[in-house]
Amino acid sequence: MNKGKQQVATTASKEWQQPAEVARGLKALKKGDQATAEQAFQARLKSRPDDADALGGLGVIRQQQHRLAEAEQLLSQATRQNDGSRWQVALNEVRYWSALQQARDAQAKGQTAQAQVLVNQVLRLNPNGVDARLALADIQASAGQFDDAQRNYRQILNQRRDDPQAQEGLVNVLLKSGKNDEALQLINSLPATGQAKIGQSARLQALRATQLAAPAKPYPSCTSNSDDQPKAHPAPHSAR
Length: 240
Hints:
Serine Threonine Protein Phosphatase 5, Tetratricopeptide repeat, about 240 residues, mainly alpha, about 70% helix, 13 helices
């Protein structure tokens, strides 16, 4: 999560125009000092409740604290002010993560259809969002939509080659689809760290499934009429 750092940096470059509390808050936020930043923004909001930069800065703090509903409310207020348009990017980011969290929550409750609707809304906000596509692939895998899940996992790995969640998701989907050889090949192609993250259980499952699928080698027939079979010789006649 970007956590609004780019937005803070852009706004902080205009500190000379800002009231003292806002300038202090933006400077502290840029340094990662949330306590000082929040104190400064709150002080400004006591005298100017509609200050766009104090609202926006406090919204970014709430985003960093994973209090997304509060962050969205504060940033929405900031963008509604006359000089608040510069906080729109931060607001869009919060909405992205908030909708994605709602999709994950719906999936956890077994509400697969609702989860897919929500995550598709997220992808419309950001079609290149890897985390949203990963959520969609996970939802599709849990719903048995293996072909769609495979396609999305592969697209993620094209963008983020070493993503362990996408690697594990793809391996599991391949196994569930009966593509055991492909799953084993994928596991073996990963570096040792990647294989360790997926775990030996998936590797052993793929290997066992591959071995079970292989045709058994026939045993030599005991009834074969081959010339190589030993031939019985008549017993010698005893002399009388």
